[in-house]
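The freezer alarm interrupted the setup, so I double-checked each line after restarting. Inputs confirmed:
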Amino acid sequence: AQSVTQLDSQVPVFEEAPVELRCNYSSSVSVYLFWYVQYPNQGLQLLLKYLSGSTLVKGINGFEAEFNKSQTSFHLRKPSVHISDTAEYFCAVSDAPHTGKLIFGQGTTLQVKP
Amino acid sequence: DTEVTQTPKHLVMGMTNKKSLKCEQHMGHRAMYWYKQKAKKPPELMFVYSYEKLSINESVPSRFSPECPNSSLLNLHLHALQPEDSALYLCASSQGEQFFGPGTRLTVL
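Predicted 3D structure, all chains:
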């Protein structure tokens, strides 16, 4: 069975500082990995995805993530955060991206302080 | 058109009411999903439709009844709900990754 663990429930950071949101997964099959962001009172927006190929994935809004198969991790990073990045971030895994189930982590609240 | 739309945005209903949530996408995606999300929690999968057929039902109570009239539309019919069913209901469609709608905020009194 697949599972996702987001290691931090809250990450406070000052504006313009770098940030890393951690995600570990477990799966016995090929995995497809995703990071979604949810702003207050909105739906989820895809930040980036790993399906295959390069292990360094670049997404929207300056975010990137690195797929590390040996450590079963898919950590999300941004070199300099803005106040507008304050939101809930979800890591998710799927075994079949076209029609399969997404298994979500519990989420990490990123709080960017001025 | 790269968005999923959901109506209504907000819904308040009593425990004896019957209501429906609507979801629409025009991206040609053949998989569509319903999720339930409680505050400060990740979305929980309820149903998956693939090529207009129900392919996954995550043991959802029968007071929730999904319907996929065509490849662009997904409905969720609600009847005799409980207060604990109050949540944000999200629809998504997929052709490689899931695109989510803005959700319907449901309150059951």
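Quick read of the result. Chain A has a mean pLDDT of 92.
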